[in-house]
Design goal:
There is one protein chain. With 378 residues, the protein is of the alpha/beta class. 45% of the residues lie in helices and 16% in strands. Strands 2-10-9-8-5-3-4 form a seven-stranded mixed sheet, sandwiched between helices. A four-stranded antiparallel sheet has the order 11-12-15-14. It binds pyridoxal-5'-phosphate.
Length: 378
């Protein structure tokens, strides 16, 4: 029996997307495929609410994070990295690798960065070339308020770079209106595509940085990629053709549902899941929760990894454990992309059964009741 996927990425892929991925491949230089690339890139632009071009790459989200550093910066540059979880910390690690000085703004994991704090840090480092932030910090479930952060950085010269890997398709992003200079994201989470494709969008200010960068980039060179797109509607190298088919179908599904409905659905699922786990006696880790994943704190003496294991082994539901120092202390229920409200009863039911199985003192049914209440009321 295959486990049902309730992880915060990769996520459950709908049948229509899987069927598209399984089609015979087109050659990546054919006009038909160029048309698909252009179409998908236009759709991604609409999703980010930007007039800037989006560039598609064959890699996971970390590849795009690294590409952003390599393309925007020069050796010895200073940047500000907001570190409120595993992925925020990753910006720091990548910068170090490229000889970029990273001001590591550590925010207690589970908390979000306050716009005033970021503005103060930016004022203290007026020579910083960029500010790197994670929109939805998947390791802790904390939501950084990108609109407010962009406003707080308005008068600073640093480019505002946002990793939207687990927020795109869950929380609205208005790149142009809010004044975000760069957005990067992977497509294996709320965009319901098997792992392997990522994208980036840059505005004029960011392209200015690209033209001055002296760090090495070849496969991930933004300028080469942009030129090829402009001239031929192609990517410079062999794209993951089948994943582009899948992404096209996934985007069409969400467009059909209506982007506002997609965001509302995630908001309902987030609220209902949080209510369910709280009714079972748990607390959620983040102060301001994202809607694509619920990160649940275990009380002392309860091993979160055991809950994950039992849910999978005994009840066929795969959730995720915690990362780095949160391992064993939290577990994470993903509810984005292909997950629908009706699926939540399965994951909360499995959680209740797993808790009974490990002898955790909770009353089976109270989580499901709280879940249904939110779903019925909203
Ligand atoms: C916020 C965020 N950024 C980046 C990534 C990229 O990680 P990966 O390269 O494993 O896709 C992830 C994946 O979990 C993520 O959640």
């Amino acid at each position: 029996m295959k486990s049902k996927l309730f992880t915060p990425g990769p996520t459950k892929v709908p049948g229509a997307v899987l069927s598209a991925v399984g089609k015979q491949v087109l050659h990546h230089r054919s006009p038909e495929f160029s048309e698909k690339v252009r179409h998908v890139q236009d759709e991604l632009g609409r999703l980010l609410q930007t007039h800037n071009d989006t560039l598609l790459f064959t890699c996971s989200g970390t590849g795009m994070m690294e590409a952003a550093v390599a393309n925007l910066l020069s050796r010895g540059d200073k940047v500000i990295c907001v570190n409120n979880g595993v992925f925020g910390e990753r910006w720091v690690d990548i910068c170090k690798e490229y000889g970029v000085e990273a001001i590591d703004v550590v925010v207690e994991w589970g908390k979000s960065i306050a716009p005033a704090e970021l503005s103060t840090v930016a004022a203290a480092h007026p020579d910083a070339k960029a500010v790197f932030v994670i929109h939805s910090e998947t390791s802790t479930g904390a939501l950084n308020d990108i609109k407010a952060l962009a406003a707080a950085l308005k008068d600073h010269q640093a480019a505002f770079v946002v990793d939207a890997t687990s927020s795109v398709g869950v929380h609205e992003i208005r790149m142009d209106e809010w004044g975000i200079d760069v957005v990067i994201a992977g497509t294996q989470k709320a965009l319901m595509t098997p792992p392997g494709l990522s994208f980036v969008a840059l505005n004029g200010k960011a392209w200015g940085l690209v033209s001055n960068s002296d760090l090495p980039a070849f496969y991930f060179d933004f300028t080469t990629t942009w030129k090829r797109l402009q001239r031929k509607g192609q990517t410079p190298f062999t794209t993951a053709v089948s994943l582009v088919y899948g992404l096209e179908v996934a985007l069409a599904m969400m467009e059909k549902e209506g982007w506002d409905n997609v965001y509302d659905r995630h908001a309902r699922m987030g609220e209902a899941t949080r209510a369910a786990v709280k009714a079972l006696g748990f607390s959620v880790l983040p102060e301001h929760s994202v809607n694509g994943v619920t990160v649940i704190m275990c009380p002392d003496g309860v091993d979160a990894n055991k809950i994950v294991r039992v849910m999978d082994d005994e009840f066929g539901v795969r959730v995720a454990g915690g990362q780095t120092h949160l391992s064993g202390r939290v577990f994470r229920i993903g509810h984005m992309g292909g997950i629908r409200e009706r699926d939540l009863a399965m994951v909360i039911g499995a959680l209740e059964r797993a808790l009974a199985s490990i002898g955790y003192p909770s009353t089976p049914g109270v989580g499901l009741t709280a879940l249904q209440q939110v779903l019925l009321e909203r």
